[in-house]
Design goal:
alpha/beta, Rossmann fold, 15 strands, binds pyridoxal-5'-phosphate
Length: about 450
């Protein structure tokens, strides 16, 4: 047992239901609202999402069945292996044990297809033939292109301009899987044209790309929009990660003391941690830590407010920690961690004291990523390096305190499509970015006048 490097579950041990944390929150989450502060019902979301996903979005049921066809596709790479990072532990000289769930083994290389496959399936079942979406670094766009191809519907992706230019390989993956990928902002949409008129050189942002994808989907009755993070049903679909990890930890006879995930919109963090938050609510002593970039400090510095999910304010207002929907991130390379808001469920868990958060600068993350590659071998996505840097901090703390500790981390994806970012780091071209207080205040001002949760 003590020499184990990884533990697999067999195919028939795959979880058959998703876990919905909304059923276990002591205090219910505030509902989404319109600009006047009135709660919005399912009908208001119907032009944007299919009703079967809207039901999941609003569900209070603890367990929701995973359809057989979805399971059949997930089984291409699931259950994913759980590893012990023994070589990293040795290099750190820590008494802590570091376990990680490897979500990089999916065809697109991250956790994102866990929800992409489910969303494509429920849209097709509802009669939808085309999905539109946004993507930052391209992981979501490639995951949704992959899922739509296997489920048999079309996919159009608005890719944040700076990543469209910096990360050509993800564009090609989307094409291989039959997705159409265009840069955002784009002259094809009203939102895009108005932004390009004011600022032709804008790097773009997820908030802008979301507005464009919505503008394209809403008028077409056969099209819907798909979001890769933030929403309740996305958190739900990702819980298969934590449910598998619980079975694997149980087989090992281990109880995690610390759970770690990097947090952009919150979905991979939620996926691993929500089943363990359920344990915590029911009395287990576990620390659960979300790690975010210092350049986009949503949980550590942004206020809990009602804010729009996009720059044109086309989405309902969601209760979340938000930097403000006008936020344009500094050009850090972790493209998937640059969203202005944090999932309402993760934000609520933070407010309820169920989780904590830390912000880390990018150079410490790349240092951790290299130490990881030099010991464990795998090259992590720049997003994942934030979880790694946090795990290293926790392991060092355990060493200082002379305490054993079981750390469980989500390894959200590989970095094989992000090698230009590694090259920039190795060339010494990257620097740390903070979000100065006056910038924080300026972006936050975009939420003035909106209702408060
Ligand atoms: C998209 C992405 C993230 C960030 O998104 P979350 O919704 O916060 O999980 C993290 N890691 C990888 C590899 C990603 O592709």
């Amino acid at each position: 047992m003590s020499e184990l490097i990884k533990i697999h579950l067999s195919e028939d041990e795959i979880p058959r239901q998703w876990y919905n944390l909304a059923a276990d929150f002591e205090k219910p989450m505030p509902p989404p609202v319109d600009p006047e502060g009135n709660p919005i019902g399912p009908d208001a979301l119907a032009p944007v999402f299919p009703m079967n996903l809207i039901e999941q979005e609003m569900s209070q049921e603890r367990w929701i069945d995973i359809p057989e066809e979805v399971l059949g596709i997930l089984k291409i790479w699931r259950p994913t292996p759980l590893y012990r990072a023994r070589r990293l532990e040795e290099a750190l000289g820590t008494p802590a044990k570091i376990y990680y769930k490897n979500e990089g083994v999916s065809p697109p290389g991250s956790h994102k297809p866990n929800t992409a496959v489910a969303q494509a399936y429920f849209n097709r079942e509802f009669g939808i033939t085309r999905l539109t979406t946004e993507t930052g670094a391209g992981q979501w766009g490639s995951a949704l292109s992959f899922a739509c191809k296997l489920i048999g519907i079309q996919c159009k992706v608005f890719m944040v301009r700076i990543s469209f230019d910096q990360k050509p390989f993800r564009k090609m993956m989307m094409r291989v899987w039959g997705g159409e990928c265009v840069p955002s902002p784009n002259m094809d949409t009203q939102v895009g044209r108005s932004i390009l008129e004011k600022d032709p050189d804008t790097p773009g942002s997820l908030g802008i790309a979301i507005s464009e994808a919505l503008e394209e989907a809403v008028p077409d009755p056969k099209a819907r929009y798909s979001l890769g993070s933030v929403l309740n049903h996305v958190m739900l679909h990702q819980t298969i990660i934590g449910l598998e990890a619980q079975k694997q930890m149980e087989k090992l006879g281990e109880n995690p003391d610390v759970i770690i995930g990097c947090a952009g919109g919150g979905s991979n963090f939620a996926g691993l941690s929500f089943p363990f938050i359920c344990d915590k609510i029911h009395g287990k002593d576990i620390r659960i830590v979300a790690t975010e970039p210092a350049a986009c400090p949503t949980l550590t510095k942004a206020k809990y407010r009602y804010d729009s999910g996009d720059v044109a304010m086309m989405t309902p207002l969601l209760p979340m920690h938000s930097l403000g929907h006008t936020y344009v991130p500094p050009p850090i390379h972790a493209g998937g961690l640059r969203y202005h808001g944090m999932a309402p469920m993760v934000s609520h868990a933070m407010n309820e004291g169920l989780i904590e958060a830390e912000a880390i600068h990018q150079l410490e993350c790349y240092e951790g990523a290299l130490q990881w590659a030099h010991t464990e071998g795998f090259i992590p996505a720049p997003e994942t390096s934030h979880a790694i840097a946090q795990a290293i901090r926790e392991a060092r703390r355990a060493k200082e305190e002379g305490k054993e500790r079981v750390i469980l981390m989500n390894w959200s994806g590989h970095g094989l499509m992000d090698l230009t970012a590694y090259e920039a780091y190795l060339n010494g071209e990257l620097s740390d970015h903070d979000l100065p207080d006056e910038m924080l205040e300026r972006y936050a001002a975009s939420m003035d006048g909106l209702p408060m949760p």
